[in-house]
Design brief:
about 200 residues, mainly alpha, 6 helices, about 55% helix
């Protein structure tokens, strides 16, 4: 087999090693930013502010802005949605899937069930990373005139507002129907026994 493929054992080229090293360093930097949630979102807010100011001053690239808004809305819906959607699976299959793996997080099915945190379809870190990349790409596009397609921007704004309202209305109805909130605030706290029933440690 080695005789038929002599290149299998050949060392990677300098070009490949260079980009592999860059990729590893980039991934290391991303891994270090995971616990710094506030700092990451402040960075994204700076990117968004820079993009908004640039588009406002240049008075153009409305198609790029519209596409960016639709993409961010799609990410936001994924961020608010549960990992296992009870609307897609039947109710019985949904509960059976949770019962097969007792440690798998998901929506609570009983009032006395152990608390399980809300697991998102799109995790917070991926939401932040994809959104930040979107702002960087959109800002880069504003440096190229071929992306500055002339459109009547009020139509795009009106259409985006209608789409946003309809999408969020459907998502809120989904939350109400299946009784869940897309946020977890730690483990549920239970009240202790009355003072007369407490056992003092010895």
């Amino acid at each position: 087999m080695d005789a038929l493929n002599p290149e299998d054992d050949s060392p990677p080229s300098a070009f490949t090693r260079f980009f592999t090293s860059i990729g590893q360093r980039y991934q290391t930097i991303l891994d270090k930013t995971v616990p710094h949630t506030a700092g990451r979102w402040i960075f994204t807010l700076v990117l968004a502010t820079f993009y908004a100011i640039r588009v406002f001053l240049l008075q153009g690239w409305y198609i790029i802005t519209y596409a960016l808004g639709i993409y961010l809305l799609n990410l936001f819906i994924g961020f608010l949605s549960p990992r296992i959607d009870p609307a897609i699976n039947s109710r019985r299959d949904f509960f059976d899937e949770l019962e097969e793996d007792e440690d798998a997080p998901g929506l609570p099915t009983k009032s006395d069930e152990e608390f399980k945190p809300f697991i998102r379809k799109l995790p917070e870190f991926k939401f932040w990373y994809s959104g930040s990349k979107a702002f960087v790409i959109a800002t880069t596009c504003t440096f190229f005139d071929m992306f500055n397609i002339p459109v009547f921007w009020p139509i795009l704004v009106m259409y985006f507002c209608i789409l946003f309202v309809l999408t969020m209305k459907r998502q809120i109805k989904h939350m109400i129907k299946y009784r869940y909130l897309p946020f977890s605030h730690g483990k549920r706290k239970y009240k202790g026994k009355p003072d007369g029933d407490q056992v003092t440690p010895q």
